[in-house]
Amino acid sequence: MEQTVEILGIPFYNVSQNAFIEELMGAAANNERRFVVTANPEIVMHAQQDIAFNQAVLNADYIVADGIGVVKAASSIGKPLQGRVTGYDTMLGLLKRANEMKMRVYFLGAKPNVIEKVVEQVQFNYQNIEVVGARDGYFSAEESALIAEEITMSEADFVFLALGFPRQEKWIAANLENFKKGIFIGVGGSFDVFSGCTKRAPGIWVKLNLEWLYRILSQPSRWRRAMAIPRFMAAVQRQRKQG
């Protein structure tokens, strides 16, 4: 089995959801630094157009398939992935394990009311976790440097960023060298779901790999973003034909 599967120039780490969580836990326990990108078709297509974003993504230690479209694309080129590795499920799995090991977590992103509820949820459900910092996503370039310094001083084991792409990946890539340790992972809209401000797709939709459709039906304004999926699949087919 190949360790990575390249799709449109993006090397996806071929790992299962549970195995990935354990691998990150091992790195955190050893005070190592890791940069994780959870990429869906929209992110892959954006990387084709934004050179700085593409460089940020390729700078990651791990790029995992957060999106059934990526998993299907891998199968279509004859190099199947073990399955989806989503930002939301990775975050939940890491919080559970971090709670067991009494580790330190920093949250960055989302709206002020959302980040407050995230901290409340963690303090209620994961009482052994030490929340060493939480900041909403509305900050200036000048404040960015102070946030990076705060994260360094906090010695966080995990830093979850919900700034949305491409901002969260660019922020991590730009500041990564400032940090000696920590698992840095962009989780997009996961704070909204975790806080209860947005509902995740019901289990049956997730099981049928229709979570993307549920999001569109729940938030019709997302339909333009969803157009990246057919463009992505068409580009993958061109890659397959080229060998």
Describe this structure in words.
With 243 residues, the chain is of the alpha/beta class. The chain has helices spanning 17-29, 41-49, 51-58, 68-76, 87-100, 112-125, 141-154, 167-175, 190-194, 203-207, 211-218, 223-226, 228-241; strands at 4-7, 10-13, 33-39, 62-65, 104-109, 130-135, 158-162, 182-186. A 6-stranded parallel β-sheet has the order 4-3-8-7-5-6, sandwiched between helices. Strand 1 (4-7) and strand 2 (10-13) form a beta hairpin. Helix 1 crosses helix 5, helix 2 crosses helix 3 (51-58) and helix 2 packs across helix 13. The longest helix has 14 residues, at 87-100. The protein is globular, with a radius of gyration of 17 Å.
Compose a concise summary of this entry.
The chain is α/β, with parallel strands linked by helices and 243 residues long. Helix content is 52%, strand content 17%.
Give descriptors for this structure:
two-stranded antiparallel sheet; alpha/beta; globular; single chain; 8 strands; 17% strand; 243 residues; six-stranded parallel sheet
Question: What is the CA-CA span between the terminal residues?
Answer: 19 Å
**Total E-strand runs:** 8
Mean pLDDT: 91
Determine the fraction of residues in helical runs and give it as a percent range.
40-55%
Which stretches are poorly predicted, pLDDT < 50 over at least 5 residues? none
Spatial order of the strands forming the largest sheet: 4-3-8-7-5-6
- Number of continuous helical runs: 13
How large is the share of residues in beta strands?
15-25%
Largest sheet: 6 strands, parallel
Please tell me how large the radius of gyration is: 17 Å
Order of helices and strands: EEHEHHEHHEHEHEHEHHHHH
SS-derived structural category: alpha/beta
Shape: globular
